[in-house]
Amino acid sequence: MTDSSTLPWFLRPAVPDERERLEALQRRASLNNPGDREALLAHPDAIAIPVDQIARGEVVGAESRGTIVGFGAILARPDGDTDLDGLFVEPAYWGRGIGRTLVEACVGMARAKGSHGLHVIGNPHAEAFYTRCGFERTGVVATRFGPGLAMRRTV
Questions:
Q1: For labelling, which of 59, 62, 68, 140 has a CA lying 20 to 30 Å from the CA of 88?
Q2: In a domain, 92, yes or no
Q3: What torsion do the CA atoms of 88, 93, 97, 100 make, to the nearest 10 degrees?
């Protein structure tokens, strides 16, 4: 058996026919994270990636041996900045720098769209990760899953 911590991976744009696989990855990652599990079980409809978001090039995937092992998604905001709409890594690949690399890819995508900031509404348990990725806390917002941390990073 191969140890997933040694497998190579690379980034590439996601393609529309991968939508169901991306959603399944998001489900597995969320269910394996104690801070997300309860919210996902209460709101299974929360996992939905619009195919047009993928088609617009707003979803980047991390691939290893022909399998998507993580992805990041962005969305334009009315104020000209960009939202980090999703960031998920296959649990067997956690701790390998994939999440941080996906954040950097999303920063680059936001910059290419002319944004000055990348925003995220993060779960409180993810604050340390986002802080390490250069985000600063800007407040707390109510979400259907409970309080979320509003954070922003200059791009």
A1: 140
A2: yes
A3: 0
Is 151 inside any structural domain? no
What separation, in Å, do the N-terminal and C-terminal C-alpha atoms of the chain show? 40
CB-CB contact of 108 with 132 (8 Å): no
Give residue-wise pLDDT tens across range 62-84. 999 999 999 999 999 999 999 99
Count: domains in the chain: 1
Q: H or E element: which one contains 45?
A: none
- List the structure tokens of 46: 């929360």
The 10s digit of each residue's pLDDT in 29-70 is 989 977 677 777 777 778 899 999 999 999 999 999 999 999
CA 90, CA 120: separation in Å to the nearest integer? Answer: 20
Q: 54 in a domain, yes or no?
A: yes
Kindly state the tokens that stand for 111. 């910059």
Q: Do residues 109 and 61 make contact, with C-beta atoms less than 8 angstroms apart?
A: no
By DSSP bridging, strand 136-143 and strand 82-89 are: unpaired
Say if CB 98 and CB 9 are below 8 A apart: yes
